TrEMBL record:
This is Trafficking protein particle complex subunit. The gene is trappc4. Its main location: endoplasmic reticulum. One of its GO terms (biological process) is endoplasmic reticulum to Golgi vesicle-mediated transport. Gene3D superfamilies: 2.30.42.40. It holds the Pfam family Sybindin.
Length: 187
């Protein structure tokens, strides 16, 4: 598993420290002619795909660059609005790179405080006396959220991703070790 992000949250739910170990995994670049056959919209000061999945471009992907130049939120490098730039037929053909946008500082604060609230609710609703709260949240895309609560009054949240190649290699190594008889007590 690779660690995607680490968040340190205090007892009140405030974000103390955050570290991203993020390399974008899925970025797609495509050259378009006029008119665009996908629908873009502005969401949280970013231009995202709202309709028209194709060729690896997914709904929710953000525009990361136009003609090889990174964009800044909803603006091109020259300061023009991306949606206005793409309405002009004279700007075509245009090469657009799409991918997952990074979280803003505000989104990171909201994520940390929201998890803190869920963690506290989970601790109180648990049928186990003295429950420590949520042990793990898992998504359908092999991402996990593991909270760690040291003896201090804070939570440390790890967002790891399971690596399919690692899982395959681990499985075959375990199978080889089982066949060789190197498992068991005293081995």
């Amino acid at each position: 598993m690779a660690i995607f992000s680490v968040y340190v949250v205090n007892k009140a739910g405030g974000l103390i420290y955050q570290y991203d170990n993020y390399v974008p995994r899925t970025e797609v670049e495509k050259t378009f002619s006029f008119p665009l056959d996908i629908v873009l919209k502005i969401h949280d000061e970013k231009v995202i795909v709202s309709f028209g999945q194709r060729d690896g471009i997914r709904v929710g992907h953000a525009v990361l660059s136009i003609n090889g130049v990174d964009v800044n939120g909803k603006y091109t490098a020259e300061g023009k609005e991306i949606l206005e730039y793409l309405k002009d037929p004279s700007n075509y053909p245009v090469s657009i790179r799409f991918g997952r946008a990074r979280l803003s500082s505000n989104e990171k604060l909201m994520l940390a405080s929201m998890f803190h609230s869920l963690f506290a609710i989970g601790s109180q609703l648990s049928p186990e006396a003295g429950s420590s709260g949520i042990e793990m949240l898992e998504t359908d895309i092999t991402a996990y959220l593991h909270p760690f609560k040291p003896g201090t009054l804070m939570n440390i949240l790890f967002f790891p991703f399971r690596c399919e190649l690692f899982d395959q290699n681990l499985k075959s190594a375990l199978e080889i070790a089982e066949k060789a008889g190197t498992f068991g007590p005293g081995s």
